[in-house]
Amino acid sequence: MSVFNSQVKPRERSVSNAYPNGKGRRYTLPTHLPTKESDSANKSALDMRDRSRARMPWVRVIIVFAIAVILLVPGSQIYRSRWTPYGMFGDDYDKNPTKHLVIASYTGQNVSWLDQVPSDWTPYRYFLDDPNPYNGLSVPRNQGREAMAYLTYIIDHYDNLPSYMVFVHGHYRSWHQVEPLPWKIRALNLTALQKEHYISLRCGDQMGCERVPYLDSLHVNWPGEEGMRDFWKMIIPYEELPQNISYKCCAQHAVTRKAVRRRSKEDWIRVRAPLIGDLDVLDMIPKVAFTPQWIVGAWYEKFWHVLFGVGGE
């Protein structure tokens, strides 16, 4: 049962002949007629409302001006996110993204697989063993394996980086890469890359990518890791190398422009500097069966995701 009784009506006062034509129209008046006190209260309320209305134009002007400053001043972050592509999906967003495919290769490698890569990926094939290649993409010195090609590209293109970059070797398939490279490039999820800023291309022959155990950089797992932390201090002196590093084998990955520019161009030049000099003079490189350039190349392989700013794990 409702708590309100619908049969009870408010008291009404009927007034007849309210109109001059005498047609006897009816209307109702409220039971409580105005009094002096209520008139005074109503007048006071009206005065307050009038004063508020008198101030409203200035308040509106101030609000509109504040909104204009926030939205229209070019330096404003909100301006950037609302009125330009920047900020809507991160500072690295482009309406028409550009894509570069960076290949670290040797002259004897067959790279005809590039014909299978989608045409919106522009290839940059670097030759590690040819100082005068036909396309002009040589490296200062053939040291550090693919790291030299990757770093040379980053330094040379830092001021005009594309939206997305994929760094790969020159082979079509390999023991560490079951799927053909064109397949991997076609399957790359750019939405995920835009979110993560770094994605390793290392996957096994099963669904998903491998889970690599952590490398404890404070405790040597094999002799080739001795001196790795000292090498890191040389290339990135202002930042500690994380103790736990979960890295993907073999240094093939996709990154965004934002990931590269998390470090300055000067930083990347310093990161490459050891590869241009004589590696034999670096005391931190252990004396093992592997060559110094192989050891240093393996260190870069473990560093890439940290260099791109996604953390050790």
At a glance:
By secondary structure, this protein is α/β, with parallel strands linked by helices. 35% of the residues lie in helices and 11% in strands. Helix 3 packs antiparallel against helix 8.
β-strand number: 9
Beta-strand content bin:
5-15%
Number of distinct helices = 9
- H/E series, N to C? EEHHEEHEHHEEHEEHHH
Structural class: alpha/beta
Unreliable spans are: 1-22, 73-91, 204-208
Please tell me how large the radius of gyration is: 36 Å
What is the helix content? Answer: 25-40%
How far apart, in Å, are the first and last alpha carbons? 64 Å
Strand arrangement, largest sheet?
4-3-5-9-6
Mean pLDDT: 77
Per the principal axes of the C-alpha atoms, what is the gross shape?
A: extended
Notes on the protein architecture:
By secondary structure, the chain is of the alpha/beta class. The protein contains nine helices and nine strands. The strands form three sheets. The protein has a five-stranded mixed β-sheet with strand order 4-3-5-9-6, with helices on both faces. The two termini are 64 Å apart. The model is unreliable at 1-22, 73-91 and 204-208 (pLDDT under 50).
Core attributes:
alpha/beta, disordered N terminus, five-stranded mixed sheet, 35% helix, 9 strands, extended, two-stranded antiparallel sheet, 313 residues, 9 helices
